[in-house]
Write a structure and sequence with these properties.
By secondary structure, this protein is an alpha/beta fold. The chain has eight helices and ten strands. Bound molecules: adenosine-5'-triphosphate and magnesium ion.
């Protein structure tokens, strides 16, 4: 359903991703692993269209999106929670979620129930400024903003980064809940192996901007972890 084929991209003169091929099938939680700086966020941005592909293709639900702008990709059903969350601090919680709604395919004007169902605290804070929320609350807001467009695939870039351990369990529940609902596949970048093993169906490991390994949970052995992930 989401298919990245032989993708090459980078910044200015520097090539970061080389020949990356990856798939996310409906209902799957696919995890993207790799040490710091290998290109995980660059791949997420390239899938979302924030960075142009120099070679290769990004396609989704059978449509080639390689030349499409980020907004068009969002309207095709790709949702994105960026690393660092990127909440608009001056806008209210409500306005932040409305921004996600802009990308909805059905042109909906109301925040859909499923966007906030997993975050009951958010509607009680609609008038507060995004910047005044705690890190964990901002992460919930970033999820709700992305879910507002009812995406078919959700890109999550390090949703647990800088989040208190108690909230990490909540995020795990949210990811499991999205998976159980069965409407949205997930491509997850996350540093914690324990976390990805607890939610992931399939794993890709990037090294120096290329896919160095891929496989299911059973084959994610200690040797693989040592070779590609241990710092
Ligand atoms: P992390 O685990 O730290 O989030 P990452 O795997 O997400 O790392 P990227 O952020 O994709 O890595 O960065 C890959 C490479 O691209 C790094 O060498 C980084 O310095 C470089 N890079 C990232 N963003 C830019 C940018 N805006 N301009 C130039 N180079 C960049
Ligand atoms: Mg990153």
């Amino acid at each position: 359903m989401l298919a990245v084929q032989q993708l090459e991209s980078g910044y200015g003169e520097s090539v970061i991703l080389r020949n990356v091929t990856l798939k996310v099938k409906p209902g799957q939680v696919v995890c993207l692993l790799g040490r710091n700086g290998v290109g995980k966020s660059t791949l997420m941005k390239s899938i979302m269209g924030l960075l142009k592909a120099r070679r290769g293709t990004v396609s989704f639900a059978g449509a080639d999106l390689t030349k499409r702008a980020p907004g068009q990709r969002a309207r095709k059903g790709i949702g994105y929670v960026p690393q660092g969350r990127e909440i608009f601090g001056q806008l209210s919680v409500y306005e932040n979620i409305l921004l996600g709604l802009e990308a909805s395919r059905d042109g909906g004007k109301e925040i859909p129930e499923e966007a906030i169902a997993k975050f009951p605290v958010l509607p009680t804070m609609y008038d507060r400024r995004g910047g005044d929320l705690s890190g964990g609350q901002q992460q919930q807001l970033a999820f709700a903003r992305a879910l507002a467009s009812k995406p078919e695939v959700l890109l999550l870039d390090e949703p647990c980064e800088g989040i208190q351990p108690s909230i990490v369990d909540d995020i795990r529940d949210v990811i499991r809940g999205i998976k159980a609902d069965g409407k949205t596949a997930i491509l997850l970048v996350e540093q914690s192996l324990e976390f990805v093993k607890s939610v992931g169906d399939y794993f890709y490991i990037l090294e120096k901007g290329a896919v160095a390994w891929e496989g299911g949970l059973d084959s994610l052995s200690d040797d693989v972890i040592k070779k590609y992930l241990t710092v």
